[in-house]
Write a structure and sequence with these properties.
The structure holds two protein chains of two kinds. Chain A is of the alpha+beta class. Chain A has 25 helices and 16 strands. In chain B, strand 8 and strand 9 form a beta hairpin. Classes of the chains: A alpha+beta, B alpha+beta. Chains A and B meet through helix 7, helix 8, helix 9, helix 10 and helix 20 of A and helix 4, helix 5, helix 6 and helix 9 of B.
């Protein structure tokens, strides 16, 4: 049985919640349990003091379960207005768990900028006004350096709608603007340190289950192969996108970038060196850093500051990423905003000054005021809304939907906007796991997307890393879950939990006013073909087929034809019906 | 999905693991479709509807798999599961539940645990979370691993090292006769001649050799991989591709990883790369022929300290008719076969314990294919000699 810490920043007060076993069985933890606690407040504006910002770990966090040390953040995104979530690897999750907390719920608004220090059961608040305006490295340098920390940067103070929370100086919250949410609460940082240990029900069974998973991990070319994530980080995907002609270039006007071969993960390694890092106990260690300690860009930032914006200078990519980190700006959303802006303004890549625009964003100078609102608002304000390559205001990741139709559908129906983390269809459409599916077909994709969403939601609720699900499945993790908790749940039972988590998010999305009109792609993908070649044709997406697939998804998901939740499905999943 | 179910229905029959018209696919998207009308549908419909699967495959296996599985279910099942020791099982299946009742509830319970189950006297039921291909692969894998388990058990039984219950001999005789006929029909050799100078030539040669390897009946289509080296590029089959369907499933991968294309390459890419890096071989063929795998697992030293961990720890210099048998696991882990296989590849090929067989050629696939066939035949004949079948 775990405990959850509720903090009200207005009164600097705390409360302990003990959820009870039935609630854990229903939502497991992580993203699922956080969503449960967000639901009563989900219609509030993101900047409302009552709007919670939730940090939740899962039941496997802090145990010997492979790659299971994640913490999940959930709140409403200032960029999109969607209920959003992100997974953070590193030490924060395990440290929070060691301190005895399954999650933190932060509400209220501090009068002045403050910090929170959690040392096991002790909670201290401190004045953090002195950290205002400081780059991230300075903020982290002022903290204890023990345990784990999370902090927002100057970007949040500037009201940049895609400012991130940065964890332990290296992990980002992924563009949903949670740094801005954190700042709206008057919170600069959280420092957490724990001395406890997470109990395990059956260590012998855990070791067996762990061996089963590690065997699969070793057999995975994407994870552990010589050119895989373990060696090159997620940047390894860049070549793959280029070879499949789905690497977005020039704000998705093209799907291939001729300079990709000199800006790929291999080139970064050659230029900057590569050291492995990541979560304790993770066999993959996906984080890469240069020989001088700078973080090597993830795939999204790598593609964002190269093909998407047309930049061909590898040093500029590195400089842009370092600048974004110090400011707490999400690098990929910044790149997407710049790509949209340059297309609307007809700025050619040769004349693009990437660093100047990033500085304008960071310091609200020139067009930075507009650029800090994200591509959807940029395109709308400049009279070209059709040039926003977003879903629900969230920029599409660097995997062009014309090159993989399940990916297209997954973007459209994701409750957090244009995003592939909820269903990650690239897994089967491109990486061929667990099996290759036909990427230029919508056949069967409605159900595949639904089932994948359920699986990843279950993984996110267990606190297991999504990368591992490129090779393992809930079948293997159910054994881990039983070994850790003593509770018998099959892979199928965990998937039902995942379904509940997803449906809860559908309800919140509906309550926030999103409809099937929002589950759609930009016109470009239906009317302009991508870049064909090497025997691969990247055509436009057939709109009727896309809508038919979306309808099938709604039916399989148990939604009405307009994407709204249904009472009977709520009852089936044990979720509260919409009042 | 119709074309996929049709394709795999055909494969089940052509690979001789099901009889014609026996298999039934159920495919679920927003509606449920069955590949044919069968009396089992009323039981299976609630199974697929309540599952987390997109497709299920049900069929009695063809002989001799049927007899092998019936025997194992009757005599060898422990705690409701069959647990073969080969690599495919250890890595992907873990174990195979035996479900005694053909009812929706019991079947669903079994499928909640594993991707495939056996229902004694009825058949094998497998599921695919995304595609009928998964259900097909798991079905094929269960047939393979139960066959290998029976054959290894029967060897130890015939040597008096274990006691199999009932009378396994008629089943063993049926199995070896069937396999003898299968092998005798494998006479065609690859025609493409190397050395290959273009990627196009290499890909065509790989497709031809892969296809022949499957049609010979030695291996299943899904498990196996194949490659050609041209200068510093390795053309290799993609992960999860079938040896008999390689068109569009071959990645050109630079040996120095200057592009990361090999991220979708076969999980055995590290082993292929290691062999090419340390030899002048130009082609590699890898499959899981049944008796090479079976023979690799037979060792009379039943009190060996490494027993149970032979696949990673075996330290004996073992050979089968001069062909080395080495330990090693799939992929890149600490016990990767990429660390054991290349050094052992001094002759016709290398057998990996419980896993399969690697052969290689210096110009094209002629030698690699001939050696695969030769070694498998030798392993089969050796097994017959040892067991008196």
């Amino acid at each position: 049985m775990g405990r959850i810490l509720k903090i009200d920043l207005q009164y600097k007060s705390t409360k302990i919640i003990e959820p009870g076993i039935e609630l854990y069985k229903k939502f497991t933890g992580g993203r699922g349990l956080a969503g449960h606690y967000l639901r009563p407040y989900c219609t509030l504006q993101w900047e409302s003091p009552e709007m919670p910002l939730l940090f939740f770990t899962g039941p496997l966090c802090g145990t010997g379960s492979p790659s299971s040390g994640l913490v999940y953040l959930v709140s409403v995104s200032p960029l999109t207005g969607c209920v959003s979530d992100c997974a953070i690897c590193g030490e924060f999750g395990p440290e929070l768990k060691r301190a005895g907390w399954d999650g933190i719920i932060i509400t209220g608004r501090s009068e002045g900028l403050c910090g929170i220090k959690i040392t096991d059961g002790e909670i201290e608040f401190s004045n953090a006004e002195n950290l205002k305006g400081n780059p991230i490295t300075t903020v982290f340098g002022s903290l204890s350096g023990k345990g784990a920390s999370a902090a927002s940067g100057p970007a949040a103070e500037q009201g940049i709608l895609y400012s991130d929370i940065v964890f332990n100086d290296s992990h980002f919250t992924g563009g949903n603007g949670f740094g801005t949410v954190m700042h709206s609460k008057g919170l600069k940082y959280i420092d957490v340190q724990g001395s406890g240990k997470t109990g395990v029900y059956d260590n012998g069974e855990l070791n067996e289950a762990r061996d089963d998973i590690l065997r699969l991990v070793s057999a995975s070319p994407a994870l552990m192969g010589a050119p895989g994530i373990s060696e090159y980080g997620t940047g390894a995907f860049l070549d793959l996108m280029q070879s499949r002609l789905m690497l977005p270039a020039d704000n998705f006007r093209k799907t291939s970038f001729p300079g990709a071969g000199k800006l790929n993960a291999y080139s970064f390694r050659q230029r900057f060196g590569s050291a492995k890092g990541g979560c304790a106990g993770c066999p993959v260690l996906c984080k890469k850093s240069s020989s001088d300690g700078r973080t090597i860009p993830e795939f999204e930032a790598m593609a964002g500051f190269t093909s998407l914006t047309g930049n061909r200078e590898i040093d500029t990519v590195m400089a842009a990423c370092v600048f974004c980190k110090e400011q707490g700006i999400d690098p990929f959303i910044a790149a997407s905003s710049i790509a949209c802006y340059t297309e609307v303004k007809r700025i050619s890549p040769e004349k693009l000054d990437l660093m100047k625009l990033l500085e304008e964003i960071a310091f609200s100078r020139g067009d930075g005021e507009l650029l800090k609102t994200g591509p959807k608002e940029i395109a709308r304000a400049l009279g070209k809304p059709e040039l926003s390559m977003t879903v629900k205001g969230l920029p599409l990741p660097p995997a062009d939907p014309r090159g993989a139709y399940g990916t297209a559908l997954g973007y459209a129906v994701s409750t957090k906007g244009g995003d592939y983390s909820h269903a990650f269809p690239l897994s089967h459409e491109i990486l061929r796991k667990p099996v290759a599916t036909e990427r230029f077909s919508f056949s069967g994709k409605g159900r595949i997307i639904k089932l994948s969403e359920d699986m990843y939601a279950a993984a996110d609720s267990l606190s297991a890393c999504r990368h591992i699900f490129l090779t393992a499945s809930l079948e293997e993790y159910s054994k881990v879950f039983r070994a850790v908790t003593g509770i018998e749940m099959s892979g199928h039972d965990l998937a039902i939990c995942g379904e509940r988590v997803c449906y809860n998010e559908k309800i919140m999305s509906h309550l926030r006013g999103f409809t099937s009109d929002d589950d759609d792609l930009s016109e470009r993908f239906f009317s302009e073909p991508g870049s064909s070649g090497n025997g691969i044709k990247i055509s436009t997406i057939n709109r009727e087929e896309f809508y038919a697939a979306r309808e099938r998804y709604y039916r399989v998901r148990g939604l009405a034809p307009d994407g709204a939740p249904l009472k009977e499905k709520c009852e089936e999943l044990g979720l509260e019906w919409i009042i | 999905m119709d074309h996929l179910t049709a394709k795999y229905l055909k494969k089940l029959v052509s690979q001789k693991i099901c009889e014609s018209n026996a298999p039934l696919f159920g495919v679920l998207d927003d509606r449920l479709y069955w590949s044919s009308e069968k009396s089992e549908i009323p039981v299976l419909e609630p199974v697929i509807k309540n599952s987390g699967a997109s497709s299920i495959l049900f069929s009695p296996p063809a002989e001799p798999y049927r007899s092998v599985i019936d025997y194992l279910c009757e005599y060898s099942s422990r705690e409701g599961v069959i647990k073969p020791d080969d690599t495919e099982t250890r890595t992907f299946l873990h174990d195979i539940p035996v479900v005694e009742e053909f009812t929706p509830e019991r079947i669903s319970d079994g499928l909640k645990r594993r991707k495939g189950i056996i229902i004694p006297g009825k058949g094998i039921l497998t599921q695919g979370s995304m595609s009928p291909e998964q259900a097909f692969v798991i079905y094929s894998s269960i047939c393979f691993s139960t066959f290998v388990k029976f054959m290894t058990d029967f060897y130890y039984h015939s040597k008096g090292l274990i006691k199999m219950n009932g009378d396994p001999e008629p089943v063993a005789v049926k199995a070896v006769r069937w396999y003898s006929e299968t092998l005798s029909s494998a006479v065609t050799l690859p025609e493409a001649r190397g050395p290959f100078s273009s990627g196009e030539d290499a890909i065509q040669a790989m497709a031809e050799a892969g296809s022949l390897t499957v049609s010979s009946g030695m291996v299943d289509s899904f498990f196996g991989n194949i490659s050609v080296r041209i200068e510093n590029t390795i053309y290799i089959s993609q992960t999860g591709s079938s040896l008999d369907e390689l068109a569009g499933c071959i990645d050109p991968c630079p040996m120095d990883n200057s592009t990361t294309n090999a991220i979708t390459a076969s999980s055995e890419f590290p082993a292929h790369r290691a062999l090419y890096s340390t030899s002048n071989r130009k082609t590699i063929l890898h499959g899981h022929p049944k008796f090479s795998v079976t023979m690799s697992m037979l060792c009379d030293d039943i009190s060996c300290v490494n027993r149970g961990r032979c696949h990673i720890k075996c330290s004996k210099a073992r050979h089968i008719k001069g062909i080395p048998v080495v330990p090693g696991e799939i992929g890149s882990g600490p016990y990767s076969l990429s660390k054991t296989m290349p050094a052992a590849m001094t002759g016709r090929g290398v057998i990996i314990w419980g896993h399969g067989l690697f052969t290689a050629g210096e110009e094209d696939f002629t030698d690699a294919y001939k050696n695969l066939l030769h070694i498998e035949k030798n392993c089969f004949n050796t097994y017959l000699d040892l067991t008196g079948c």
